[in-house]
Amino acid sequence: MLAELLEALHGIAVLQLVPEAGAGETGDRLRGLAARLSPEDVQLHYQIGLMGQRDLPFAPDPRSGLEMVLLRMLAFRPEVPASGRQAQQPATPRTVVVATAERAAEQAPPSSAGRDPDLANWHDTVERLGLGGMALQLGRNCVVESWDGRLLKLTLDPSHGHLLGSRAEDRLKDAICRLAGRRSR
């Protein structure tokens, strides 16, 4: 069922970009959805569906796994102002600050404290942190703004701002500090 949903979302995205591509019965069915859904929502739902498809083997059963993917699609949406339209001015990215060296020194054994996390590829680093749920989503949606050896600054797209100030932010910071404290060369 999830694969069929992903195919439909793909078809909707194609129709939104290339309307003449949707010939036939399937194109006619999807054309109405393509007109009603924003391209941003389609892309977000497709991404959530792909990630959910990857995670399905970890669900207790296929039905609950699919339900969780669908619930994520409903829960995580770009913010829409009261007027019902997307805001015209670009939102400012938000910053997550992680004082890695200091926090690692607090949490790790003295012999390994203060080592740098490998930031050459942030997204690979996030996958090694052992996070799940919202903390993993927060990490995946951040990019490294700066790293001076002591202070790590991550930038988060404003559409994911709801993840800041939550337990997810604390879990991401703690995981980065653990990685910094455990690294060995």
The total count of helices amounts to: 8
How would you classify the quaternary structure? single chain
Major beta sheet, specifics? 3 strands, antiparallel
Measured as a percent range, the helix fraction is 40-55%
Radius of gyration: 20 Å
Tell me the β content. Answer: 5-15%
Widest beta sheet: strand line-up: 1-3-2
Tell me the number of structural domains: 2
End-to-end distance:
46 Å
**Arithmetic mean of pLDDT:** 75
Query: Shape from CA axes?
Result: elongated
Total beta strand runs:
3
Order of helices and strands: HHHHEHHHEEH
Q: Ranges with pLDDT <50 over ≥5 residues? A: 84-90, 101-115
- What structural class do you assign from the helix and strand content? mainly alpha
Structural features, described:
This protein is mainly α. The chain has 2 domains: 2-75, Zinc Finger, Delta Prime, domain 3, CATH 1.20.272.10; 94-182, no CATH class. The chain is built from 8 helices and 3 strands, in the order ααααβαααββα. It has helices at residues 2-17, 25-36, 39-55, 62-75, 100-107, 122-128, 133-140, 167-182; strands spanning 94-98, 142-147, 152-156. Strand 2 and strand 3 form a beta hairpin. The longest helix has 17 residues, at 39-55. It starts with a helix and ends with a helix. Residues 84-90 and 101-115 have low confidence and may be disordered.
Main traits of this protein?
three-stranded antiparallel sheet, 53% helix, 2 domains, mainly alpha, Zinc Finger, Delta Prime, domain 3, single chain
